[in-house]
C-alpha cells in the first residue's frame, strides 16, 4: 500500500480478489468431467487440466504447480523464521531499549521450523489435515487482528502524523523515479502472492462429500474465503499505511514499527509462525502425493516404497510408517530449509512467487478449461472477455516478475550467504 498509495493500492487489491473469486468458480466446475455434478472425479489440479485440455497442457500445469508449491514452502520457511526471530528481538528491545541494535540470526529459527515440518510431513495425506488447517486459520485471524488493532492505536496516538499520499511513496522525496517503478511492480507481485491459493483448490475440493455437489460447496467456500481474506488484507494494508505512512516496514509485525506492548507483539509473531506451520503442509501435501504416486507406479514391487508398517505411538494410536515417505519427505524439508537460508529476501521472494503462479494457475488454466468444457465459440462475446482477462493478467504477471527479480538482484548486491540477521 505504501508503494502504490491509497487509490492504486486499494483498486489493485480489489481487482485481484475479484479475479481470484471468479476464476475459482470456473475451476470448481472442472473438478468433475464432463459434467460438473455427475462426471468423473479429477483428484487434483493437474488431472483436471489433463481431462479438460489434454496431455501437453497437463505437463505444463504440473510443472507450474509443483515449482510454485516448492517456492511457497521456501517462502513460508523464510517468513516463519523472521517472525520467530522477531520474538527474540522484541524481548531484546524491551530489556535494552529501542535504540539498541538487536541483531538476531534467522538461520537457527529456519532449522527449528524445518525440524517441525519433518515431523508434520509424516501426516499421510490431505484428508488428515483438517485440524491443522483450523489451527492455522485461528492463528491467521489472531495476528491480523492484532496488527490492525495496533495500527489503529498508533493512528489515534496523540501527535502521530504519518505521511501518506494518494500515489504512495513520493518521487524525489522517498525514492527516485526508477525506484518508484520497481517498488510498484514488486508490490503488485506481493498482492498476487496473497491470492496464490488456486493451485490447491482442486485438492481441497477432493476432500468434500458428494452431497451437496462439490462444485456448489466449493464456490460458496471460495466466495466466503476470498471475501474474508480481502477484508483483512484491506484492513492491514490501510491501517498499516495510515500508521506508518510512506516509510511503512515490509512486515509491520516484524519490521518493528511497533515495540510495545512487547508481549502482544510476541504473541502475534508466534501466531504467524504457527499459521505457517500449517500452511506449509497444505501446500506441500500435493507435491508429496505426486512424488509418492509416481514412484509407486514406477516401482510397484519395491517394498521400501510401497510397504507400510504399523507402529504404535503413545497417545496417538497406530501409525502406518512407510520408509520411502519418511526418507524423501525429510530430504525435501531439509533441501527447502537450506535454499531458504541461501535466499532470505522476504518481500522480493514473495512477490516473485506470487507473480509466477498467479497467471498460469489462477487465471489461464481455469479460463481455458471453462472455454473447452462449455464449448464457447471463438470470438463470441464471452470468449473475447475471457481472453482479455487472461492476457491482461499475463501482462500484470510479467510486471510483477520483473519488479521482484529486480528486488532480488538489488538484495544480492549486499548479501553474504548464511550471514543474514533480523535487524
UniProtKB/TrEMBL annotation:
GO terms for cellular component: membrane. GO terms for biological process: amino acid transport. The chain crosses the membrane at residues 6-31, 66-87, 107-123, 130-153, 223-242, 262-283, 326-343, 388-409. Coiled coil: none annotated. The keyword Zinc does not apply. The keyword Metal-binding does not apply. Keywords: Amino-acid transport, Membrane, Transmembrane, Transmembrane helix, Transport. It is found in: Membrane. Pfam families: Aa_trans. Residues 1-409 form the Amino acid transporter transmembrane domain. PANTHER family: OS05G0424000 PROTEIN-RELATED (PTHR48017). This is Amino acid transporter transmembrane domain-containing protein.
Amino acid at each position: 500500500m505504501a508503494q502504490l498509495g491509497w487509490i492504486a493500492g486499494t483498486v489493485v487489491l480489489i481487482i485481484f480478489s475479484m479475479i481470484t473469486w471468479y476464476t475459482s468458480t470456473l475451476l470448481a466446475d472442472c473438478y468433475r468431467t464432463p459434467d460438473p455434478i455427475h462426471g468423473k472425479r479429477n483428484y487434483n489440479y493437474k488431472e483436471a487440466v489433463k481431462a479438460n485440455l489434454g496431455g501437453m497442457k497437463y505437463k505444463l500445469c504440473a510443472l507450474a504447480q509443483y515449482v510454485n508449491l516448492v517456492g511457497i514452502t521456501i517462502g513460508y520457511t523464510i517468513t516463519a523464521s523472521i517472525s520467530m526471530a522477531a520474538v527474540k528481538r522484541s524481548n531484546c528491545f524491551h530489556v535494552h531499549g529501542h535504540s539498541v541494535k538487536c541483531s538476531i540470526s534467522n538461520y537457527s529459527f529456519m532449522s527449528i521450523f524445518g525440524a517441525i515440518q519433518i515431523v508434520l510431513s509424516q501426516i499421510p495425506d490431505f484428508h488428515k489435515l483438517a485440524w491443522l488447517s483450523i489451527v492455522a486459520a485461528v492463528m491467521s485471524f489472531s495476528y491480523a487482528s492484532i496488527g490492525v488493532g495496533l495500527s489503529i492505536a498508533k493512528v489515534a496516538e496523540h501527535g502521530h502524523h504519518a505521511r501518506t499520499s494518494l500515489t504512495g511513496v513520493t518521487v524525489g522525496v522517498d525514492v527516485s523515479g526508477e525506484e518508484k517503478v520497481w517498488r510498484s511492480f514488486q508490490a503488485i507481485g506481493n498482492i498476487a502472492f496473497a491470492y496464490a491459493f488456486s493451485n490447491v483448490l482442486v485438492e481441497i475440493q477432493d476432500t468434500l462429500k458428494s452431497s451437496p455437489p462439490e462444485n456448489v460447496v466449493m464456490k460458496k467456500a471460495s466466495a466466503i474465503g476470498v471475501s474474508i481474506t480481502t477484508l483483512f488484507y484491506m484492513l492491514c494494508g490501510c491501517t498499516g499505511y495510515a500508521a506508518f505512512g510512506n516509510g511503512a516496514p515490509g512486515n509491520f509485525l516484524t519490521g518493528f514499527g511497533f515495540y510495545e506492548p512487547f508481549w502482544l507483539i510476541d504473541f502475534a509473531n508466534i501466531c504467524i509462525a504457527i499459521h505457517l506451520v500449517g500452511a506449509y503442509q497444505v501446500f506441500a501435501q500435493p507435491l508429496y502425493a505426486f512424488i509418492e504416486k509416481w514412484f509407486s507406479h514406477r516401482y510397484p514391487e519395491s517394498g521400501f516404497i510401497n510397504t507400510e508398517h504399523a507402529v504404535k505411538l503413545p497417545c496417538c494410536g497406530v501409525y502406518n510408517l512407510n520408509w520411502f515417505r519418511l526418507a524423501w519427505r525429510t530430504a525435501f524439508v531439509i533441501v527447502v530449509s537450506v535454499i531458504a537460508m541461501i535466499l532470505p529476501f522476504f518481500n522480493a521472494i514473495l512477490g516473485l512467487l506470487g507473480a509466477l503462479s498467479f497467471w498460469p494457475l489462477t487465471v489461464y488454466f481455469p479460463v481455458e478449461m471453462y472455454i473447452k468444457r462449455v464449448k464457447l465459440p471463438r470470438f463470441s462475446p464471452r470468449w473475447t472477455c475471457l481472453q482479455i482477462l487472461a492476457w491482461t493478467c499475463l501482462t500484470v504477471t510479467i510486471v510483477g516478475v520483473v519488479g521482484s527479480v529486480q528486488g532480488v538482484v538489488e538484495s544480492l548486491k549486499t548479501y553474504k550467504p548464511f550471514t543474514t540477521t533480523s535487524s
